[in-house]
Design a protein that fits this description.
The protein has 2 helices and 13 strands, in the order αββββββββββαβββ. The protein has helices at residues 2-22, 161-164; strands at residues 36-45, 52-64, 73-78, 82-85, 95-103, 105-114, 119-122, 125-130, 139-147, 152-159, 165-167, 173-175, 179-186. It is elongated and about 50 Å long.
Length: 187
């Protein structure tokens, strides 16, 4: 009788232990809550005739569309000051602009806020690079994407330097960005 009672007690303890493991309140899938997905923005570039083009990005944001009563909101993906030499980002090289978890929903824009310390090196000579409204409203990319729970949405921002950098009549370098957005959804 003691053996049956001990066996029953042992089975009961194992059953209770497994039930408590299955009802754990910790978030699944790498620590993300079920209502969140992730985004990763990657910067790449195509070859150019310039020697170098350095862009100073101070903040990366995405815009989530709102409901009928709101106009939506901006979410900061990265707010650390970083310098990118765009011409080093070709032939498979890339740089991560930012990655984070976002709430589920539809996002409509990406914005790169830049500083006034951008420059171009052309034939070994360094020239200031002007990015109109770069410090105020930033470089805006109209690209809609959907963040789904538990999925990583990766965006490659392919910067075309030769189509983006223009020399004005008085010899100033201006950036009018031509950027192709290449989406990849990874489960």
């Amino acid at each position: 009788m003691k053996i049956i009672s001990l066996s029953f007690l042992f089975v009961l303890l194992i059953t209770l232990w497994q039930c408590s493991e299955n009802n754990s309140t910790e978030p699944k899938s790498g620590g993300q809550s079920p209502s969140k997905g992730s985004i990763k923005l990657v910067l790449i570039d195509s070859p150019s005739t310039l020697d170098s083009i350095v862009v100073c990005v101070s903040r990366v944001e995405v815009h989530k569309s709102g409901t009928d009563t709101t106009s939506g909101s901006w979410t900061v993906i990265n707010d650390s000051l970083r310098y990118f030499d765009l011409l080093l980002l070709n032939n498979g090289a890339s740089a991560v602009l930012g990655d984070t978890s976002l709430t589920e929903g539809k996002y409509t824009q990406i914005r790169l806020i830049v500083e006034d310390c951008n420059y171009v090196v052309d034939d070994g000579i360094k020239y200031p690079l002007t990015i109109p409204s770069g410090t105020q409203t930033g470089i805006k990319l109209n690209h809609s994407f959907e963040i789904e729970s538990g999925k990583l949405y990766e965006l490659f921002l392919d910067f075309n330097v030769d189509k983006s950098v223009h020399i004005t009549g008085n010899g100033n370098y201006k950036l009018k960005p031509t950027i192709r957005v290449i989406p990849v959804v990874i489960s």
